[in-house]
Design brief:
heterodimer; A: 113 residues; mainly beta; five-stranded antiparallel β-sheet; 11 strands; B: 112 residues; seven-stranded mixed β-sheet
């Protein structure tokens, strides 16, 4: 089955700096890669996703890149703000093949003032 | 436009009791997924259902766990004869067809 690895497990940045979180996946059939943000006591919230037919997607301060050959994808957050502090999860799935998400183990992002 | 609704938010059970977790998907969503999250870990897939059908239960423990999504009403995740190891946060997500999954805020299950 699919295996998703995520690094780093914790990340501390200064407000205004950029943050990068990286994930690798094992199943070359995976074609959908969402990123979720989870705040304490809440459920995961979808923040951005990318499908395997594109290499990059951007939404304001958030961008995701995908390298299908190397089987890795990354989340980039620019101009970080204190409210970006949360746990971020990457995930992978095969759309049309059951859709179950395989999650990474999460990155605790802390944005310091 | 209500999101995915899960209840109860917190559930305490003694060992050997039954736990019933409920999930109402977003309006218009016919696909429901259940995931389990242990402390300091990512979410693990349990089961995927469409109305009245279990599509994929490859992540469900073979014993004591069951799930349903009836024609009317919420999806139910049922855990019989709970043990301490069942303590976790259980999340439900819903989607339309191949669209992104949206999660509820989970049920935190504690076993005494």
């Amino acid at each position: 089955g699919e295996n998703v690895e995520q690094h780093p497990s914790t990340l501390s940045v200064q407000e205004g700096d950029s943050a990068v979180i990286k994930c690798t996946y094992s199943d070359s059939a995976s074609n959908y890669f969402p990123w979720y943000k989870q705040e304490l006591g809440k459920g995961p919230q979808l923040i951005i996703d990318i499908r395997s037919n594109v290499g990059e997607k951007k939404d304001q301060r958030i961008a995701v890149t995908l390298n299908k050959t190397a089987k890795h994808f990354s989340l980039h957050i620019t101009e970080t703000q204190p409210e970006d502090s949360a746990v971020y999860f990457c995930a992978a799935s095969i759309t049309g093949g059951g859709n179950k998400l395989t999650f990474g183990t999460g990155t605790q992002l802390k944005v310091e003032l | 436009n209500a999101g995915v609704m899960q209840n109860p938010r917190h559930l305490v059970r003694r060992r050997g009791q039954e736990a019933r977790l409920r999930c109402s998907p977003m309006k218009g969503h016919s696909h429901v997924y259940w995931y389990r999250q242990l402390p300091e870990e990512g979410l693990k897939f349990m089961v995927y259902l469409q109305k009245e059908n279990i599509i994929d239960e490859s992540g469900m423990p073979k014993e004591r766990f069951s799930a349903e999504f009836p024609k009317e009403g919420p999806s139910i995740l049922r855990i019989q004869q709970v043990v301490r190891g069942d303590s976790a946060a259980y999340f439900c997500a819903s989607s339309r067809d191949d669209q992104p999954q949206h999660f509820g805020d989970g049920t935190r299950l504690s076993i005494l």
